[in-house]
Each structure stands twice: as structure tokens, then as C-alpha cells.
Design goal:
Blueprint: E1 7-8, H1 22-31, E2 36-38, H2 48-58, E3 61-63, E4 65-72, E5 75-82, H3 89-99, H4 101-117, H5 122-129, H6 138-147, H7 154-162, H8 177-186, E6 190-193, H9 202-215, E7 220-225, H10 230-243, E8 246-250
Parallel strand pairs: 1-2, 2-3, 6-7, 7-8
Antiparallel strand pairs: 4-5, 5-6
This protein binds adenosine monophosphate and manganese (II) ion (3 copies).
């Protein structure tokens, strides 16, 4: 039973770079047959109270969450914290401290984008699209450049301008892996490595990352996510077993038009894994 649970433990509201309000997401999850749902905004806890309230009203099992941005060597890695205390003062302060750098980064991104696309109002445009002024992300820039007709879709904006090595990409120092896991654990959460198939470490460094993640108290890994191919499900199912990690499942839904995968519309976890929700439910 536990394996076949329609758990969706990763998605975003307009408190970070999603486009729907937490309560709207809760209803959408419910309509799509989700049985256990977590909201995991980037570096933000601000949507959790609304999500929790909405879930209580419609009778949907809810788990609090957050997706923490982490710098590992030259890459950004995401760690989802499931079951964190949504009003944990220390966690809130840490996340806020980290997000303070986002505004300066956004201004630099806007400058680079002006130079390379001719769009003059990228900063104002991204701010207008951001539901939370403290959280201006690359996604908001991507949406603005689509509105301006620079690219046909946000995926194209990322590919041409917003990924490492591209002209609108601005390096940023996020939390260290040790910090992120420490913050999540202190707030009572379980750290889950998000969408591992998206990183570009190579086999050796990837194994080193997983070993270090476990050493620092990491508990889970996303096996079935909207970012993974069928080959990734198999690969990360095997790595989850090898490293003794619990398996998680989440759509990473952001927006009805953009997201590849809607809430709850994912394959079930492969057999032979220990679902992370057995520790949460
Ligand atoms: P930021 O935290 O500002 O660096 O923005 C990260 C967000 O950008 C991720 O959470 C994704 O929603 C989005 N993103 C990153 N890479 C891509 C990509 N290649 N295509 C579409 N969206 C992406
Ligand atoms: Mn995002
Ligand atoms: Mn992510
Ligand atoms: Mn995400």
C-alpha cells in the first residue's frame, strides 16, 4: 500500500517561483488524486500556513516542506526538507539571510540580460512577476523574457541565457551542504536530495556527493520526479538502495503551462524501496 500511495512531496507556489497560491495548489493536488502532499518553496516557509489550512479544510494529508539552495563546488544542488517546523525561528532567519543576496544577484542578471537581449526592464519585469519580493528567481526573468518575445518558452530562455556558462547567468554562493542539512534537521525536518538526475557531477563525484549527504544526516533521495527520465528512476532507485536512502516522489510542479508534470501525475515508486513518507505519515 505504502508504495502505491500517490504522494507528491515537491512543488512550488507563488511564494517562490510557482504561479499558483498555496491554497489553489492544495485543491489542484486533491483534484489530481494526490493522497499526501508537501509544499516545498525555494528557501521560503511563507506559504506553509495557507497550504496547511487549505488541506485541513479539504481533508488532504499535508507535510510541511522547503527546498534549500546549496552550492556544491561549481554547481547548485537542491535539498528538500520535509516535515520542518514552519515557524522555526532559526530556520526562518537562516533562509532569510541567504535570500538577501537574491536582490543584488537579480540586478546583475538584469544588467547582463539587457546587454545580451536588449530588454531594458528585466529587473522591473522580474519583480512584477514575483509573488514575493524577497524571492526573485531566474524563473521570473525567464517568464519576463518570454513575455517580451525574446524566446518562445522559459526552457529556451534557460538554455540560451540563464544556465552556467550562458551570458545572463550570475554565480551565487548559496548554503553549504553542511549548513542546509543542519538547518533542516534542527527544524525537525528530513533532508531529501532533490532531482539528482539534474546535476552534472560525473559518476565519481556524484557518489562522493551521496556519501557526504548521508554522512551529514541526509535521509532521502528523489527517485521519481518530474525532472527524471525512466532511466533516471532506475539509476536512482539503485543508488537509494546502495546508500541506504529513503525514496521520495515529487512533481516539482511550478505552473500549469510550463511544468512537464502536473501535481500527482507521476509514476509510482519502483518496488524494493523504502518510501520516505513511512517516516512522516
Ligand atoms: P534560482 O533559484 O533563481 O537559481 O532559480 C532556480 C529555478 O530555476 C529552479 O528551481 C527551476 O524552477 C528553474 N530552472 C533551473 N534550470 C532550469 C531549466 N533548465 N529550465 C527551466 N527551468 C529551470
Ligand atoms: Mn523552481
Ligand atoms: Mn530544484
Ligand atoms: Mn523545486
Amino acid at each position: 500500500m505504502s508504495h502505491s500511495l500517490n504522494a507528491d512531496l515537491h512543488c512550488h507556489s507563488l511564494v517562490s517561483d510557482g504561479t499558483l497560491a498555496p491554497a489553489v495548489l492544495a485543491r489542484r493536488a486533491r483534484e489530481n488524486g494526490v493522497q499526501l502532499w508537501a509544499l516545498t518553496d525555494h528557501d521560503e516557509l511563507g506559504g506553509l500556513a495557507e497550504a496547511q489550512q487549505a488541506c485541513a479544510e479539504i481533508g488532504l494529508d499535508f507535510i510541511t516542506g522547503v527546498e534549500v539552495s546549496v552550492s556544491v563546488d561549481d554547481q547548485t544542488v537542491h535539498v528538500v526538507g520535509l516535515g520542518v517546523d514552519p515557524v522555526h525561528a532559526e530556520l526562518r532567519a537562516r533562509l532569510r539571510g541567504m535570500s538577501e543576496g537574491r536582490d543584488a544577484r537579480a540586478r546583475r542578471m538584469a544588467e547582463a540580460l539587457r546587454e545580451h537581449t536588449g530588454v531594458e526592464d528585466a529587473y522591473a519585469g522580474a519583480c512584477r512577476l514575483a509573488g514575493n519580493p524577497a524571492l526573485i528567481s531566474r524563473t521570473h526573468f525567464a517568464r519576463h523574457l518570454v513575455e517580451r518575445g525574446v524566446c518562445a518558452n522559459t526552457g529556451e530562455v534557460f538554455a540560451r541565457f540563464l544556465t552556467p556558462g550562458k551570458p545572463g547567468y550570475v554565480e551565487h554562493a548559496w548554503a553549504t551542504l553542511e549548513q542546509a542539512l543542519g538547518w533542516i534537521r534542527e527544524a525537525g525536518g528530513l533532508p531529501v536530495l532533490a532531482h539528482p538526475g539534474r546535476y552534472r557531477f560525473g559518476p565519481q563525484r556524484e557518489r562522493e556527493l551521496l556519501a557526504r549527504f548521508v554522512e551529514l544526516g541526509g535521509v532521502g533521495i528523489e527517485v521519481v520526479t518530474g525532472s527524471h527520465s525512466a532511466a533516471d528512476w532506475r539509476k536512482y532507485a539503485a543508488l537509494a538502495r546502495e546508500f541506504g536512502l529513503r525514496a521520495s516522489r515529487g512533481s516539482d510542479f511550478h505552473c500549469p503551462r510550463e511544468s512537464r508534470c502536473d501535481l500527482g501525475r507521476l509514476p509510482r515508486l519502483p518496488e524494493g524501496l523504502s518510501p520516505i513518507w513511512d517516516l512522516l505519515h
